[in-house]
Design brief:
Number of strands: 3
Shape: elongated
Structural class: mainly alpha
Largest sheet: 3 strands, antiparallel
Strand content: 5-15%
Strand order of the largest sheet: 1-2-3
Number of domains: 1
Radius of gyration: 21 Å
Distance between the termini: 47 Å
């Protein structure tokens, strides 16, 4: 059996100028492309959209499924610098979804108190007219919806996944 090469699609270039589906090379390092990263953020925004009225359990299940798939493909990238920022951004998006789901001020106060925030910080934040995105970064939401609590709810950590892919023995 002989293999025919499509000369219109084939080319020989240096690694710095080549692009593999979703990846590019920078010297000896492999990185994801900007286009792939923009698509990742777009999909995360869609999965954590404030107006997607589904249960948080379903939302977090779909989000975890997508993030795991993305990391299984793009996790080989040696580009660590944006990973902590993405991880923080993802958790903030999830906090925003919870905030939007709670809707009423008394529900927000009740849930924040239940999660360990004090009345002194929970009430003013719940009564605030600022939007869910701004309020997802306040002291009350950070104290109430901690990273550990979010992990227990089913939010996956992109940072932890990247570390497990690149340093499997030290991560455990």
């Amino acid at each position: 059996m002989t293999v025919k090469v499509n000369e219109e699609k084939s080319r020989v270039v240096e690694t710095d100028n080549s692009v593999f589906p979703g990846f590019t090379f920078s010297g000896k390092k492999i990185r994801w492309t900007e286009k792939a990263f923009r698509e990742f953020k777009r999909r995360i925004k869609r999965l954590t959209g404030r107006s997607w009225f589904v249960s948080m359990e379903y939302r977090l299940q779909k989000l975890a499924q997508y993030v795991r798939g993305w990391m299984n493909y793009f996790g080989i990238s040696e580009n660590y610098s944006p990973i902590p920022e993405i991880d923080h951004w993802l958790r903030r998006r999830v906090r925003m979804c919870y905030w939007k789901q709670w809707r009423l001020a008394r529900t927000k106060v009740r849930n924040l108190l239940k999660l360990g925030a004090s009345k002194k910080v929970a009430i003013p934040v719940a009564m605030s007219r600022k939007g869910p995105w701004n309020l997802s970064r306040t002291l009350a939401t950070q104290v109430g919806m901690t990273n550990k609590w979010l992990m227990n709810q089913g939010v996956v950590s992109i940072k932890e996944m990247w570390v497990n892919i690149h340093y499997p023995a030290t991560a455990r």
